[in-house]
């Protein structure tokens, strides 16, 4: 399925449902895709941070790509994360994505040994020469230790093989400056990662979000985006408040950074959508934490139902 220019709306970074450390919960992934498409999302993003992509074997990543593209059935574009420390493995994942019918790939800077910006520009150019699909840039400095700095983005902006960027820096000054480049490339897509900043991002000129909570409550995030685009600030602020509550209740159980993904997977498991097994070295929530997530769903569910007129 071809991408719109620019791509706008909500693109959930799908969790990767697992049955054990190297077995995909394929039926769970299919149910998850049906769930988010029914919620009105604009595209799907596989094998990102929320999808635990770099923690999965290449075999399992390939299986997830093929399963997701088959389940999507061309209803929405599929974007596939190819971030890796090995150049040739990123290219192989991109070829797998193209063969399966994905619309684009997404890459963050290679992690482990930090590269300089000239090296990142050269790497991106080499990658583009090998890729069979358009490449979205993925700015995730907290995990990669390297940012797509503004001068680097400016250098890459004119390449038609790059349709846009997902910014997960959480830096709104950086995001505002990215949006200033849209006057030079109006077909470019700029998407916000942290959902707590989705409203701010759209008001700044961004096109939407790649928001983890849309795995669980897709229609909420879609409605927030639509209200912000329409300039209905009263409605947008009310929905934004609920998005903040989702973040507070699902992502802050436990003491470790992995709590965000654990909370999402636990919620999806409690909703009967997919398994909550985590890739090594992480583990699913234990009984006490699971009860907290269950209680939070019991609180969030009625609130979202009460706001149902705003979600249509």
Task: Describe, in plain words, how this protein is organized in 3D.
- This protein has 312 residues and is of the alpha/beta class.
- It has helices at 26-38, 58-72, 87-100, 117-130, 141-144, 150-156, 172-180, 198-203, 218-230, 233-251, 259-270, 287-306, and strands at residues 9-10, 18-20, 23-24, 44-46, 78-81, 104-107, 135-139, 164-167, 189-192, 208-209.
- α1 (26-38) packs across α2 (58-72) and α10 (233-251) packs antiparallel against α12.
- It is globular and about 50 Å long.
- The two termini are 25 Å apart.
What's the helix and strand layout?
Elements: E1 9-10, E2 18-20, E3 23-24, H1 26-38, E4 44-46, H2 58-72, E5 78-81, H3 87-100, E6 104-107, H4 117-130, E7 135-139, H5 141-144, H6 150-156, E8 164-167, H7 172-180, E9 189-192, H8 198-203, E10 208-209, H9 218-230, H10 233-251, H11 259-270, H12 287-306
Parallel strand pairs: 1-10, 4-5, 5-6, 6-7, 7-8, 8-9, 9-10
Antiparallel strand pairs: 2-3
Helix pairs in contact: 1-2, 2-3, 9-10, 10-12, 11-12
Q: Which labels suit this protein?
A:
12 helices, TIM Barrel, alpha/beta, 312 residues, two-stranded antiparallel ribbon
Approximate shape: globular
Task: Detail the poorly predicted runs.
Answer: none
Task: Note the total helix count.
Answer: 12
Proportion of beta-strand residues: 5-15%
For the largest beta-sheet, the strand count, sense and barrel status come to: 8 strands, parallel
Mean pLDDT comes to 95
Order of helices and strands: EEEHEHEHEHEHHEHEHEHHHH
């Amino acid at each position: 399925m071809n991408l719109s220019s620019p791509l706008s709306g909500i693109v959930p970074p799908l969790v990767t449902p697992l049955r054990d450390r190297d077995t995909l919960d394929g039926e769970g992934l299919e149910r998850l895709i049906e769930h988010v498409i029914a919620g009105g999302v604009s595209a799907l993003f596989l094998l990102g941070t929320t999808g635990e992509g770099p923690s999965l074997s290449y075999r399992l990543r390939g299986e997830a790509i093929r399963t997701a593209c088959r389940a999507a059935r061309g209803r929405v574009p599929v974007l596939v994360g190819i971030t890796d420390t090995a150049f040739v493995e990123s290219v192989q994942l991109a070829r797998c994505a193209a063969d399966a019918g994905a619309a684009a790939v997404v890459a963050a800077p290679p992690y482990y040994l930090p590269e300089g910006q000239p090296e990142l520009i050269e790497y991106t150019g080499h990658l583009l020469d090998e890729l069979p699909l358009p490449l979205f840039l993925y700015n995730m400095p907290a995990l990669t230790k390297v940012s797509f700095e503004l001068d680097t983005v400016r250098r890459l902006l004119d390449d038609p093989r790059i349709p846009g960027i997902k910014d997960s820096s959480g830096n709104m000054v950086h995001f505002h400056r990215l949006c200033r480049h849209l006057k030079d490339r109006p077909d470019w897509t700029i998407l916000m990662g942290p959902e707590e900043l989705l409203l701010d991002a759209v008001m700044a000129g961004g096109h939407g979000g790649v928001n983890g909570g849309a795995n669980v409550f897709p229609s909420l995030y879609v409605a927030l985006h639509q209200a912000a685009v329409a300039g209905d600030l009263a409605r947008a602020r009310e929905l934004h408040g609920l998005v903040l509550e989702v973040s507070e209740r699902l992502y802050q159980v436990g003491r470790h950074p992995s709590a965000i993904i654990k909370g999402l997977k636990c919620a999806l498991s409690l909703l009967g959508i997919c398994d909550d097994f985590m890739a090594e070295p992480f583990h699913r929530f234990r009984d006490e934490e699971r009860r907290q997530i269950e209680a939070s769903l019991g609180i969030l569910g009625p609130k979202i139902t009460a706001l149902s007129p705003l979600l249509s």
